[in-house]
Amino acid sequence: MNDDIEQNHTKSYWKERQDRWGMAKSGEEKAIKVICNLFAKILDVPRNNIKYKRLDNIWFESCDINNHEYEWVKGAPDFVIKIFLPEKKYISVEIKLKSQEYRKTTSGGITKNGSIIPNYGCSSYYLDVVPVYKNMNDFVSKTDRKYPSFVIAFVKDDFSEVNFISLSMINKIIKGGWNNDGKNIDICIYGEGYGRDTYLIPKDATTKGGKLTGEQLRNALLDDYPKPQETNMDNTMDM
Fold first, then answer.
1. Residue 64 contacts residue 229 (beta carbons within 8 Å)
2. What is the rounded CA–CA span in Å between residue 10 and residue 178?
3. Nearest to residue 158, comparing CAs of 231, 99, 80, 217?
4. Which end of the chain is more exposed for a tag (fewer CB within 10 A), N or C?
5. CA-CA-CA-CA dihedral for 124, 129, 131, 133, to nearest 10
6. Do 202 and 180 form a contact (C-beta atoms < 8 A)?
7. CA pseudo-torsion sign 53, 206, 144, 68
8. What's the average pLDDT block by block, 10 residues per block, for the chain (239 residues)?
């Protein structure tokens, strides 16, 4: 029975990855529109006051991402959103379309190969340690961005649910653990059978789109957004 459960988790992981690659080609544009609509409602501004454009493509066109020196550029957020309040403000958003959640963290346990899965009390999202997490941090370091302005949006594949977490919060719980109802839980690194280590980010560590407040969103806004000519080439994250 346990072997069947583990095989199902492995299949779910690879299905999630394959679905995500396919969805990314067609779903990110719809996802960012859903997010912009949500931000307009939260900030109580007209939808026309919120614009977006692809930020990653700007960077990919300016740097040779096939050159290892520019590996960090792959960590550029998918989109930058411009909001007129009426002053112009910006926020960078990385979209992670999800068709699957890792559910073994709901109760925890030990896998057939001996991996200890913590009991988060909730499902979790996959976030690859390398290159995804590393590249995102390297991008922020090289562009001297403020981490709270780099937001990851976990979007359900039918666009019915959006959950937000800042890169700064992910860094915080990875380094110091996640405090869940007074209990500090180490973030799990899981890669059994996948060939790549992935962080399991607790779903309850994210903020549901419907519960995001105007104050939280305003605090994440900046006066500008990272452009290719404004880089610090010396900063990278050691993993």
1. no
2. 25
3. 99
4. N
5. 70
6. yes
7. negative
8. 55 59 76 98 97 95 93 96 96 94 95 91 96 95 81 96 96 97 95 85 97 96 87 43
Length of the chain counted residue by residue: 239
Which residue's structure tokens are 């019915």? 160
- Give the phi and the psi of residue 178 in degrees, each rounded to 5: -105, 125
**What torsion, rounded to 10 degrees, do the Cα atoms 21, 26, 27, 29 define?**
130
How much is the pLDDT for 144? 78
Residue 233: what residue type?
A: M
Q: Which residue has the tokens 């690659």?
A: 21
pTM of the complete model: 0.86
- Residue 181's CB is within 10 A of a number of other CB atoms, namely 7
Domain ranges (residues) in the chain: 2-219
* Tokens (6 digits) for 180: 């869940």
